[in-house]
Specification:
The complex is a heterodimer. By secondary structure, chain A is an alpha/beta fold. Chain A has six helices and 17 strands. Chain A has two domains: 238 residues, Zn peptidases (Aminopeptidase), CATH 3.40.630; 76 residues, OB fold (Dihydrolipoamide Acetyltransferase, E2P) (Beta Barrel). The relative contact order of chain A is 0.13. In chain B, a hairpin with a 6-residue loop joins strand 14 and strand 15. In chain B, helix 1 packs across helix 6. Chain B contains six helices and 17 strands. Classes of the chains: A alpha/beta, B alpha/beta.
């Protein structure tokens, strides 16, 4: 396997920077990429994290996962990007610094676009296109906290759902909202695609090690499920709940200090049930109640810190359709 | 009993008034006027100032103050509480420590300057109209979105063997607040602090709480807000503004001399802390490490410089700036609240 200047023969690992473009100030715009080329043939799995420059915790474990893998025991190829948005990471922001673009909203990019659009275009053409399956790892950045795997309802839905279950997180969301991400483009292209939402800043102090463990288990489980690695997949709990999503609540109406009831995650809620509230930041008055518009199971997803960026996810509701027991 | 006046705001005895203290205007006409609650007790007594978010992203105290003002009944209070949920509104809006309007940290600007930049003017009006009225000032800080903390911080006594009356009161109030841990930095640890000096010269007994933060919010947020509010009520009890028993983490308050401040080593990467709160760390032991975010290679370590105990303070988020990322201390005093006199008088 050779991608840009990064090359690994069968039974080898390689690491390097996949360079897409240079800025006007001649900074390299590049993506760190590991290639683990298995000793025998098999599928190509792409694991990527850090499309947002504030979703950086997976980078604390993903290089270690690569380090523990023995290519001689692997069938197929693992491509792993521990932190895609290097400039956002450098300057501690969601968007790339070069042009202010959110790399998760550029589709498959443009060859003649802005620096970020060119970056995503090159990445999609030369990396994503090689993959049979994509695990796109996200976190709650500095304000959200998550534990679920999401699947789009386009492309290879059944295969994607099976892979999502195999990651071993407690919940799977069917019907992840369509967006402008490269993951959605890959799903439309018929690839097996799962978005793994794990952790986030508000849980970092108390759940760092278990969340990093979830990331590690998700990657190894994906490889086992795809036949790249021997062994059975391991679930976090005794079962994985599959939820058909029907409601996505985002910041709307009054702004202030937003408090969501974390105790309702994983629970069934009724129409009109209070899921949270917004408080005036100076008087303490409740200026808005956040209510469930319809019955549903609340995903382990959404806002946790009281001050949220515009458009931030508050909660996801759906119908429980299946519970898959641990293998 | 006279009315309580704070700049353009006024409350009669027995009233709770909320409004915005007019402070300054920027070139675009933006007014970072400060939200102020005046809770004017029906009976005379001292004045307590509680303020939050002078560092705009540190909002645990803000939430505690909001809960407090909803419960405080001016008819049952002796003296006055001036409660300011957010001092730095620009920083609060943008979730930043300082004020982007001029890049300044308001907490370092007191007594302020009426002819300075916007933040200088904010500091001046706030100092003259609010701080000067207070007998006691609780300044709520926290770990912003990237850290987690839980202790009361105060200024070291200039001469520990002969503390001044103000210093004696301050140590009592620090203990009365109710946390199980408090700390002071040896003089000069962070250089000169003219703002704190100005507040003390104005006769205000001041202490700071470093309370909670974003990375512990999911599990501990509600408890921290509750205990921060408890600290306000405890302080009022110690000042005899209300009656009641003190409530605390436990009977003991351990006060640390925070003699070790650890700064990031001269390599950058992802910070991984390896020591927990309350842990005794030997000199030369690794407190945390910096790793390469792409390869996982360890780039450098943060070594402890003196045997000491980790004070509940520090960074959890993996990127660190030019700030202290670990504080350790040795025990200076353990106060037993069951036997200690925690009351202070401002006659």
């Amino acid at each position: 396997m050779k991608i840009g200047t990064i090359a690994a023969k069968r039974g080898e690992k390689a690491f390097g920077f996949f360079k897409a473009v240079e800025t006007h100030g001649r900074f390299d715009v590049h993506i760190p990429l590991h290639i683990v080329e298995g000793a025998s043939e098999g599928p190509v799995l792409l694991v990527q994290a850090g499309v947002s420059g504030l979703e950086i915790e997976p980078a604390m474990i993903l290089p270690k996962v690569v380090a523990e893998l023995n290519p001689a025991e692997i069938s197929g190829t693992l491509l792993l990007v521990p932190l895609l948005n290097t400039s956002g990471f450098e300057f501690e922001q969601v968007q790339a610094i070069w042009d202010g673009k959110d790399l998760n909203t550029l589709g498959r990019g443009r060859a003649d676009g802005t620096v970020s659009e060119q970056l995503i275009h090159a990445y999609y053409q030369q990396v994503v296109s090689l993959a049979d399956a994509l695990v796109d790892i996200h976190t709650g950045a500095l304000w959200g906290y998550f534990r679920y795997a999401g699947v789009y309802k386009v492309g290879a839905v059944s295969r994607s759902k099976d892979l999502a279950v195999a990651l071993g997180l407690p919940q799977v969301l069917l019907g992840q909202p369509e967006d402008q991400s490269l993951a959605f483009e890959a799903a439309k292209d018929g690839k097996t695609v799962v978005s793994a939402w794990i952790g986030g800043g508000p849980g970092l102090r108390d759940h760092r090690e278990e969340d990093l463990g979830r990331v590690r288990r998700a990657v190894l489980n994906a490889m086992r499920h795809l036949g790249m690695l021997k062994g059975r997949v391991e679930f976090e709990d005794g079962r994985v709940s599959i939820v058909n999503g029907h409601t996505v609540l985002r910041v709307s109406g009054e702004r202030g200090l937003t408090f969501m009831d974390k105790g309702k995650r994983g629970q069934k809620v009724q129409p009109g049930e209070k899921l949270g509230y917004v408080k005036h930041p100076y008087t303490g008055d409740i200026v808005q109640e956040i209510l469930a518009p319809r019955e549903g199971v609340m995903l382990h997803a959404g806002a946790a810190w009281p001050i949220l960026p515009e458009g931030a996810l508050l909660a996801i509701l759906g119908d429980l359709v299946e519970e898959v027991p641990a293998p | 009993m006279r009315k309580v006046r704070v700049g353009n705001l006024e409350a009669k005895p027995g009233e709770h008034v909320f409004g915005y203290l007019e402070v300054a205007k920027s070139r675009s006409g933006l007014s970072p006027d400060i939200p102020v609650h005046i809770i004017a007790g029906a009976e005379p007594g001292p004045t307590l100032l509680v303020q939050g978010a002078i560092h705009g992203s540190e909002i645990i105290g803000t939430m505690a103050i909001l809960n407090f003002v909803k419960k405080a009944d001016p008819k049952k209070i002796r003296g006055t509480v001036i409660a300011v949920p957010v001092v730095n509104r620009i920083g609060f809006e943008l979730q930043e420590r300082g004020s982007r309007i001029d890049g300044k940290d308001i907490s370092r600007l007191f007594p302020g300057n009426p002819r300075g930049s916007v933040s200088d003017q904010v500091a001046y009006v706030y100092f003259e109209e609010v701080i000067r009225q207070a007998n006691v000032m609780i300044d709520f800080h926290a770990g912003g979105r990237t850290a987690y903390e839980r202790y009361v911080l105060f200024t070291a006594e200039a001469d520990p063997k002969n503390p001044t009356e103000m210093e004696k009161k301050r140590r009592k109030l620090v203990v009365a607040f109710g946390l199980d841990q408090a700390a002071f930095f040896p003089p000069g640890t962070f250089g000169e602090n003219k703002a704190k000096d100005a507040i003390e010269k104005a006769g205000v007994v001041q202490f700071t709480t470093e309370f909670g933060g974003g990375t512990g919010w999911y599990e501990n947020g509600e408890a921290n807000v509750r205990d921060a509010e408890r600290g306000i009520w405890n302080t009022m009890k110690a000042m005899r503004m209300i009656d009641g028993e003190f409530e605390a983490d436990g009977p003991l308050c351990t006060i640390y001399n925070a003699c070790v401040v650890l700064w990031k080593p001269p390599v950058d990467g992802l910070f991984i802390r390896k020591k927990e709160f309350g842990e005794l760390v030997k000199e030369g032991e690794i407190y945390g490490s910096l790793v390469d975010p792409y390869t996982g290679e360890e780039l450098g370590h943060l070594y402890n410089t003196k045997e000491a105990i980790v004070i509940p303070s520090g960074q959890n988020w993996p990127t660190v700036g030019a700030t202290s990322i670990g504080i350790l201390g040795i025990v200076d005093q353990v106060v037993d609240r069951r036997t200690a006199d925690l009351y202070v008088s401002f006659d």
